[in-house]
Design a protein that fits this description.
The protein is built from 1 helix and 10 strands. It has about 130 residues and is mainly β. The chain has a domain of about 80 residues: Phosphatidylinositol 3-kinase Catalytic Subunit, Chain A, domain 1 (Ubiquitin-like (UB roll), Roll), CATH 3.10.20.90. The radius of gyration is 23 Å and the shape is elongated. It comes from Coregonus suidteri. InterPro entries: Ubiquitin-like_dom, Ubiquitin-like_domsf. This is Ubiquitin-like domain-containing protein.
Length: about 130
C-alpha cells in the first residue's frame, strides 16, 4: 500500500488506483508557557486532550500529570477532561494553549499511637484543581 496525499492507494500495472480517500485536517496550535516561550504544534482536531498532553511531554519534557492546560480562542477555557477532543473544546487552527507546570506538593501527617508516641510522616502528592 502507498499513502499518497492522505489517500490510501494500491499500485496496479504502474497505475495508482484509489481505494478510499480521507480528508486529513491539520491545525496548528501555539503552546505557550507562563514565561512567554511559545512553540507551534501541528495536531488533528479529533486529537484528545490526553494525546495533546503526551505531545507536549515529547516537545517540552514535562510529564503529563504536571501539566494544567487552558485554551485561548477568544475565551479562556479550562482543559481538564483528557478524554475530550480538541474540537470538543472549540479549539481550532490558530488557538493558543497555555501550559501551567505544577510541582508536587507535600503533606505532613502527625500520628499519635496508643502509647502517646508521636510520629511525623511526609508524603508527596499531586493536588487536583
Amino acid at each position: 500500500m502507498v499513502l499518497a496525499y492522505g489517500a490510501f492507494a494500491t499500485l496496479h500495472n504502474k497505475d495508482i488506483s484509489t481505494i478510499s480517500t480521507k480528508k486529513i485536517s491539520i491545525m496548528e496550535l501555539t503552546i505557550t508557557l507562563l514565561n512567554g516561550d511559545s512553540y507551534p504544534l501541528m495536531v488533528e482536531p479529533h486529537t484528545t486532550l490526553g494525546s495533546l498532553k503526551s505531545r507536549i511531554n515529547q516537545l517540552l519534557r514535562v510529564p503529563t500529570e504536571r501539566q494544567r492546560l487552558s485554551g485561548v480562542n477568544g475565551n479562556n477555557i479550562s482543559l481538564s477532561d483528557d478524554s475530550k477532543t480538541l474540537s470538543d473544546y472549540g479549539l481550532h487552527s490558530g488557538s493558543k494553549v497555555m501550559v501551567l507546570i505544577t510541582e508536587p506538593t507535600h503533606i505532613q501527617v502527625f500520628l499519635k499511637n496508643e502509647k502517646g508516641h508521636r510520629h511525623t510522616h511526609m508524603r508527596w502528592c499531586r493536588v487536583r484543581p
